[in-house]
Amino acid sequence: MENSHVPAMRPAPAGPVAPGPVVPGPAPAGPTAVAHSPNAWVAPGFATVLSGLLTGIAMVAIGFAAMATDSCGPDNCPSEITVPLGLMAYGLFATPFVTPLALITAWVLPWRPRWATARRWAAAVAVLPGLTAVGGLILLVALGG
């Protein structure tokens, strides 16, 4: 039975050894391998879920928030109502352009530690439009709209 984990013993050559071509051996395995970040999926995954939730909440809120101008008409409303509604509208208008591009960027970046900061920034940018729209809703409620 042969033990493959034990190196084979070779007999020493008996006599002068003729010079031959030097053939390099296999490259040693070790630090030359590229390390992948095990937590690279966290920022894009969190941003995907959060941007979906925030955008859904903002779409429902902007649908109901249009009724906030029923009592004063669209031209005579105070800025306590129109500013938050405008903020919500800007957030929702930016969502189809900014969020998908930022999420695709966050998911496609290489999963190496070197790209972790760029991946986090792309994930943060993906959440901003939905966060802006929900922030407008919070401002509308806080100002008494």
Report on this structure:
The protein has 145 residues and is mainly α. Helix content is 56%, strand content 0%. The protein has three helices and no strands. The longest helix is centred in the middle third of the chain and has 30 residues, at 79-108. 21% of the residues are buried. The mean pLDDT is 82.
Q: What proportion of the residues form beta strands (DSSP E)?
A: under 5%
Distance from N terminus to C terminus (CA atoms, Å) equals: 85 Å
Helical content (DSSP H or I, runs of 4+): 55-70%
Query: How many DSSP helices?
Result: 3
Structural class of the secondary structure composition?
mainly alpha
User: Topology as H/E string?
Assistant: HHH
Mean pLDDT: 82
Largest sheet: none
Number-wise, the strands total 0
The residue ranges in which pLDDT falls below 50 over 5 or more consecutive positions are none
Q: In angstroms, what is the radius of gyration?
A: 31 Å
Shape: rod-shaped
